[in-house]
Amino acid sequence: MANNIIEFRPRELAPAPEEPPARDASLGRIIGLDAARALAVFGMYYSHVGPWANESGTWKSFLMEIPHGRSSALFATLAGLSLVLIAGGSRPKTGRPMRQAVVRIAIRSVLLLALGSWLVAMGTSIVVILAYYGLFFLLALPFIKLRARTLAILAVVVGIGGPMIIQWAWSSDTSWMEAIDAKDPLAMWSGEGVTSLLVNGTYPGIAWMAYMFAGMAIGKLDLTKLAIQVRLLIIGPALALLGYGGAWLIGKFLPSADTSAMDASWKAFDEAMSKALEGKDTENWTKEQWKDFDAEHASIYDLMPKDDAMTGTGFDWTSLVAASPHSNMPFELAGNIGVAFTVIAGLVLLLGRFAKLRFWLAPLIAVGSMSLTAYVAHIAAVWYLIDHPANGVGYETGWRMWAVFVVAMLAFALLWRRFLKRGPLEYLMHWATLPAKLVK
Fold first, then answer.
1. Which of 400, 376, 409 is nearest to 126 (CA)?
2. CB proximity list for 24: less than 8 A, separation 6 or greater
3. Could you say which DSSP state residue 198 is in?
4. Per-residue DSSP letters for 32-86?
5. What is the DSSP string of 280-298?
6. Distance spanning both ends of the chain, measured CA to CA
7. Dist CA 311 CA 420 (whole Å)
8. CA-wise closest residue to 300 among 279, 275, 278, 283
């Protein structure tokens, strides 16, 4: 009889799906990231047309130098975060949606690479970052499915190893880079080829991928959760203290170099060069004219100081502790990532919790929603007003120009967003990536 008894067991219940984030929290993430992008753009405005401090080592100079280096690093971190959000963020896409996302990212990468190279080829005085970003996106694609912890580890590895490779490249024979540039279409077109974008440019990918991986790591987290926001607001300042404070502390124990001989050499070189160029109108000289000048006055270059860093005869270990803007060394990378985390988490938290701030910061949020347009617009303005002015003289940079750029962009973005969803270049980017929907 026992064998005929049917045993009833309760069916195991499927795990309940995660609740979607509250509307305010989700909106706070979106507009918080937009506000962070706007701050990054305006910081780069300041770096390019704003004033420089007349002296160093003061609180005034410290405050004036804050945007330098950190704004572009914040932009790069946000780029990594945006890359992951396209692929689903904390809930990664799978199957066809993921394949479509990858194609969208690849198309964006190629377009940014082309747009950035074109802007450089136009002869702007600004070191354009867009071509670098295009390459960063392509380099990041193979890692898009990794977990937050793995991406964070990658950021640390790249942040330490990348600067060492850069320092090695600068202190060794660079003829191999010149050989690559000679056959690189990008280098021949714009002057910035693959070696510049990866190794010896202003934003070398071999180090700057640390920002991308860091941004991708926090993009894998649920930024709508208060606990995540608070955690980033602890990690961010800690990293900033480690980076900037660590560089300052270690620098105190490093032997200071005697720069008097080098300073004297530079002074002699500057005086000789000024005398040789006296009375000559060099503004419109061609490359051939400069080559002829260099050949005729080759002896002047013998006055330039000779040291290991310039002659490529030794690895400068002391430079690895630098944290100055665009030094691209580990301590600067850590400090900049810390600032980026703090700004991102702080704005997401504030705009998610305090609805009134969304009204007051609406112009800033509007600029951030069209950050590509805002960035390219200031390059075009600098090209027209300073690099190639119609009157042949150009305008003076400083507080006034920076303020005009900022106010004009705030007004334009706010007005544009009243009628259209995306910025002008954002619409073009959106239309260009529509073929990704055809991916099966």
1. 376
2. 352, 353, 355
3. I
4. HHHHHHHHHHHHHHHHHHS---SSSSSHHHHHHHTHHHHHHHHHHHHHHHHHHHH
5. ---TT--HHHHHHHHHHTH
6. 57
7. 55
8. 275
d(CA 58, CA 51): 15
- CB under 8 Å to 390, separation ≥6 — which residues? 384
pLDDT-based confidence at 260, cuts 50/70/90? low
Contact 78, 36 (CB under 8 A): yes
What 3-state DSSP class applies to 29?
Answer: helix
Q: What is the pTM of this model?
A: 0.82
Does residue 271 register a pLDDT over 80?
no
Enumerate residues 6+ apart whose C-beta is below 8 A from 67. 43, 44, 46, 47, 50
The answer to whether residue 73 scores a pLDDT higher than 90 is yes
134 contact partners, CB below 8 Å, separation of at least 6: 108, 109, 110, 111, 112, 113, 114, 115, 116
Give the phi and the psi of residue 8 in degrees, each rounded to 5: -95, 130
Domain spans of the chain?
A: 22-51+58-251+306-438
- Over residues 391-422, the pLDDT tens digits come to 777 788 889 999 999 999 999 999 999 999 89
- Residue 142 burial (10 A CB sphere; 0-12, 13-18, 19+): exposed
- Residue appearing with tokens 């990664």: 92
Query: What six digits make up the tokens of 139?
Result: 């380099």
Instruction: State the average pLDDT over residues 341-358.
Output: 93
Give the whole-angstrom CA distance, residue 72 versus residue 54.
Answer: 23
